[in-house]
Design a protein that fits this description.
The chain is α/β, with parallel strands linked by helices and 357 residues long. It has eight helices and 14 strands.
Amino acid sequence: MHAAAWLRAWDAQGAHRTGTPGDQAGAEWLAREAASSGAAVTLETFELSRIDPVSCWIESPGLRIEGVPVFDSPPTGPDGINGPIALVRLSPWAVYTPDYHATRGASDRAGMVIVCQGAEPGLGLLNAEQFREPYGCPAIHVAEMPRSEPVRLVSYYQRTVAEARNVVATIPGRDRARRTVVVMTPRSSWWQSTSERGGGLVCWLETLRGLIAEPPMADVVMTANSGHELGHLGLDAFLERRPGWDGPDGAIWVHYGANIGAAGGQLSIQSADAPLREAMRYALTAFGQPPDTMAPVTRVPNGETKDIHRAGGRYVTLVGTNRLFHLPQDRWPTAVEVPAIERVAAGATAMVSALAG
């Protein structure tokens, strides 16, 4: 298995934010790796209005703290705004809580400062779930709590029309009447995100190699999508080309989600589908990496399969925990446990091979 080499290559590409040079480098690298396995690979492009920060900071008496815009909040002008400015402590997981939208949308302030509160210090940025429709007041992330109330906030950014790419490989099945299997992993993120995204990419590549070596009965479509941190833009683009695939009569989805094999993390299987849950649990256990938890069948996933869940589709998701989640410190080699990633990849490959026949 080439896991360590793949993870090193991924880490060296720089930050993988959607539509940036690091994202493009990641797409080209992954397409080359997939093609080298013998797969027919397509780069499916989609357009976005990329945010390019120009000036982003808060000012308190005697102190300026640099920050990063909240990517689904409106900008200020270049001179910024004066108070009232709210200070809130939030972790990257806050976007999935029921009161987050109300907090962001409250109208009693001119600006908002999100003080990032991950398991480790740093700029643990929050995903822009409403990237297409910015809401609330201008807001920025900072890594530290200011010593006094901010009196000025600048979140000045420009927008650039840009392209991003989904890497898609199709393995034709021998029985074209069978239900299509989609194997999906996100491949964009705020930073390098080597443990957040790397484990899923290793699983994706190993699954592709396994299916090329032993062709399946069902069609299998492998997609590694950009746009994850911006409200799943890439999945939306993938589905626009394949209407109905997310519904109850559509494809069967296997999702390699975040933090697979993150150092010190725990692995969970998420699905409302009992046979898919059990098949994945059995396969991972057989290869020496049983899940640490089985999420309740009632749990709505947080990542891309949230969209599949809401459409009534069949899916199973692998997702882990990670102390470096959304932090720039998520880097090779200390952020990942390569042997664990290899075991998960082997088990997941066996599961998909069995599912696709």
